[in-house]
Amino acid sequence: MAADPATDTPRPEGLVQRSAGLRRYLAMPAFLALVGGGLYLAVSRRQLDDIEQRVLTADSLSDAVIRHLELVGVSTLAVIALAVPLGILLTRPFARGLTVPVIGVANIGQAVPSIGVIVLLGLTLGIGFRYAVYALVLYAFLPVLRNTMVGLQRVDRAVIEAGRGMGMTRRAVLGRIELPLAVPVILAGIRTALVINVGTATLAVFTGAGGLGAPILSGITLSRTVVLLTGSVLVALLALALDYLAGLAEDLLRPRGL
Fold first, then answer.
1. Which residues have C-beta within 8 Å of that of residue 152, sequence separation ≥ 6?
2. Separation between Cα atoms, residue 207 and residue 117, nearest integer Å
3. What is each CA distance from 152 to 86, 158, 162, 170, in whole angstroms?
4. Considering the entire predicted model, what is its pTM?
5. Helix, strand, or coil here: 10?
């Protein structure tokens, strides 16, 4: 924070910037707490029938949230482990001829509707947690792959040549120059995949994988609006919360000066 040399006190612009930063980081948690609290009060004050009481218990909802987080977490980690190395490989000169066919295959996951991907894999491979993760990986693969390639391709060639001129190996240039400079773009792709998986994972209920799709499906099939709205709001809150945390990770992992 900037200070006045004469008085050694913070300058007004520094206080303004600090205040703006605090508002930026606290606004979303406050919003999530407000909406979550409003949902709790609305449901708790409503006269629920027997079916709604059985579906909207704390244990069942917490189990659904945990299973949803497991689906999203495992599938997103798998996407990162597969798409980032593949994106790096496709930007190397010896593999650039494979870029078009690989991107074409990765586009399949985005071209087919998400319900189609999950149900198709469920019918062909099987049902349950594992196969739902496979479908989520396929559907969220493209954003991470594409952003990894774009981030590496945007690195200034002059910077790379300067590193090579200093005697750095190709591996050292990749690890110490290219990847650090591409981190913001790669993280943006991972953040997109994370949010995509939160929404798509609600459809995993159709293959017996559970998650927050369970109360949504129960609300639809049983014609219970309060159950449907509760599940939908929880999915939205979870997506916003994970997006917020991913944004914090972007700020922490972004190289200084970028």
1. 87, 88, 91, 178, 179, 182
2. 11
3. 12, 13, 16, 14
4. 0.83
5. strand
Domain boundaries, the chain: 46-253
Separation CA 67–CA 197 (nearest Å)? 13
How many Cβ atoms sit within 10 Å of the Cβ of residue 19?
Answer: 10
Q: Which of 75, 113, 56 is nearest to 201 (CA)?
A: 75
d(CA 164, CA 14): 40
Distance CA 183, CA 255 (A): 8
169 vs 18: which has the higher pLDDT: 169
Instruction: Write out 117-136 in H/E/C secondary structure.
Output: HHHHHHHHCCCCHHHHHHHH
Structure tokens at 119: 């149900």
Question: Cα-Cα-Cα-Cα dihedral of 159, 161, 165, 166, to 10°?
Answer: 30
CATH class of 46-253: mainly alpha
Which tokens in the block code for residue 242? 């994970």
Rounded to whole angstroms, the Cα distance separating 21 from 16 reads 9
Q: What is the pLDDT of residues 171-204, one digit of tens each?
A: 888 888 888 889 989 999 999 999 999 998 998 8
Q: Tell me the pLDDT tens digit for each residue of 102-111.
A: 877 777 766 7
**AA identity, residue 110:** Q
From start to end of the chain, where are the E strands?
Answer: none
Spatial neighbors of 186 by CB under 8 A, at least 6 apart, are 84, 87, 144, 147, 148, 151
The span from the CA of 102 to the CA of 90, in Å, is 9
